[in-house]
Structures are given as C-alpha cells and as structure tokens.
Amino acid sequence: MLEAMKTMAQRSVMERLVLFVNHVISAEPMALDKLRPHAGRQVLIELDGWPALLPPVGPFAFRVTPAGLIEWSDEASAATAAVPDLRVAIAAGNPAALLTRMVTGERPKITVSGDAAFAGDLDWLIDNLRWDAQDDLARFVGDGPARELSRFGRFVSGAVREAARTLRDLAPRGSGAAPEPPPGAR
C-alpha cells in the first residue's frame, strides 16, 4: 500500500511539474522553436549517487512533442526505454547540498551524454526561460496587487537564497570525507 501511495504521489507531482514547465515554455515562442526540431527525442534524467538510506528517486524520462513541449514517461517506461537521445546525470550524493545549490541559483554538478545539438538547445532553455509570476497573477487579481505580491515574493525568495548561501558557507569544505583524526587518536 505504501508503494502504491508513493507511485501515486510521484505521478501527481510529475504531471503538475510537466504542466508548469510547458506553461513556461509556451509563453516563449523562441523556446517552442528550439524544441520543435527535437520532436520525438527523449532525455533521461538520473540522480547519481542518491543515498541508499533515502527512498529511490527516478530515473525521469521526458520526450519532446511535435508542438515543442515536453511529456513525461513514467518510471516503468523510463527504465525499459531504448537508449535515450540525451542522458543527464545529476550528482545527488548529498541531497541537502544539491537543494542548497539550486536555491542559491547555482547549477548542480551534471554529466551529459548524447546528442550535442539537443543538449545545446536544452541548455539555452535552462539559461533563458523564466516564469513571469507577476503576469500570471495579474490575470487573477489585477496589475496593482500582482505587482505588490510579486515584489513581496522577490523579497522572500531573496531572503531564502541568502539564508541558503549562509548555510552553504558554514558547511565544511572538502571532498565530503570525514576529517582525519588528530595523531595519537587512532
């Protein structure tokens, strides 16, 4: 039963994530133009080094539609899919550090293999697409309140980003291995 609930929750989250990403992509005609030539191509995203103590996550397979949007393939089809056109492995040995990196706006450490043109166009999307939350809010509450809510959101996200940077700077540096004990403590 627990496995069924996990599968249902993952499906729900992934479907909403794809809807959101497609909303952002469709708001930018150039993004659609970048993706249309890659219709039918598949990208597989894996989390490398994910801790065994945590529930397994992924892999995540996405396919580009003829409209220039993306669709998600569930975990079962991702695992049995043919060789993807592009494989993205994200270093996830320390999920907390990965999350902190993403919150502070840093790109996580990734390894990419496969179609270079497809990778280049996806990289362009990552660098250039931004969600215009103020524009979406204005449709519901009007321009003035949307502007103020957006300003408040920028303040909160800036505070969260700064807190994450502070936490990152306080964390010990190095390879992630335990520090050497002092001589004589062995």
List the helices and strands and how they pair.
Blueprint: H1 2-26, H2 29-35, E1 42-48, E2 60-64, E3 70-73, H3 75-80, E4 86-91, H4 95-103, E5 110-114, H5 116-128, H6 133-141, H7 143-170
Parallel strand pairs: 1-4
Antiparallel strand pairs: 1-2, 2-3, 4-5
Helix pairs in contact: 4-7, 6-7
Give an overview in words.
This protein is an alpha+beta fold and 186 residues long. The protein folds into two domains: 2-131, Nonspecific Lipid-transfer Protein, Chain A; 132-171. The chain contains seven helices and five strands. A five-stranded mixed beta sheet has the order 3-2-1-4-5. Helix 4 (95-103) packs across helix 7 (143-170) and helix 6 (133-141) runs antiparallel to helix 7 (143-170). The longest helix has 28 residues, at 143-170. The model is unreliable at 175-182 (pLDDT under 50).
Output the keywords.
5-stranded mixed sheet, 52% helix, single chain, 2 domains, globular, Nonspecific Lipid-transfer Protein, Chain A, alpha+beta, 186 residues
Task: Indicate the overall shape.
Answer: globular
Number of helices: 7
Number of DSSP-assigned strands: 5
- List low-pLDDT spans: 175-182
Secondary-structure element sequence?
Answer: HHEEEHEHEHHH
Proportion of β residues? 5-15%
Largest sheet: 5 strands, mixed
**Alpha-beta content class:** alpha+beta
At CATH level 3, the topology of the largest domain is: Nonspecific Lipid-transfer Protein, Chain A
Gyration radius, rounded: 20 Å
Cα end-to-end separation: 47 Å
The largest beta-sheet arranges its strands as: 3-2-1-4-5
CATH architecture of the largest domain: 2-Layer Sandwich
Question: Approximately how much helix is present in the residues?
Answer: 40-55%
Mean pLDDT: 78
